[in-house]
UniProtKB/TrEMBL annotation:
Pfam families: EVE. CDD domains: EVE. SUPFAM superfamilies: PUA domain-like. This is EVE domain-containing protein. It comes from Turicimonas muris. It comes from the Bacteria. Residues 9-151 form the EVE domain. Gene3D superfamilies: ph1033 like domains (3.10.590.10).
Amino acid sequence: MSGKEFYAWLMKSEPSEVSVDDVLGMPEQTVGWFGVRNYQARNFMRDKCSTGDPVLFYHSSCKEPGIVGIGQIASDPYPDPTQFEINSVYFDPRSSEVKPRWVQVDVKVLYKVERISLQDLREIPECEGMQVLKKGNRLSITPVTEEQWDALKPHLHRLTD
DNA sequence: GCCAACGTTGGC
DNA sequence: GCCAACGTTGGC
């Protein structure tokens, strides 16, 4: 009853675009979470994410979807640069540098874990209420409560690379 | 590649 | 401001 509603974040990435290994190869093992073009997900980044919040790094739209890494929010929100890049698929002509529409935060990957598949996740009773498990869920960023995180902990098996 | 679900768009 | 059409997401 005491757990925080926005304790942690589940952040989806398509591994063909940015995989957990890609991020581990980046400077500071950190990536700007570019390309979010959904207002609800944007508002989470803009209003609710804080530096240091735990992150579940999730691979989606792939053969083996699931949680593959643990990280943390590593910056305040700032304008997503891809919205201004005319050749980017994320270009938004309705946005402007003066009044940016889309923001991102930096995400740092701390370590990889043995993949927790969607199926595994559904079998953890305390995780039943997780937004990512809800039917028709399409949000790329969803909050994870403190209770859900605690329930997940015993299932997180750190990999050593 | 299918298709259910849901967000966005735009005509009225 | 309604709502049908359309586009996108993402597991399967």
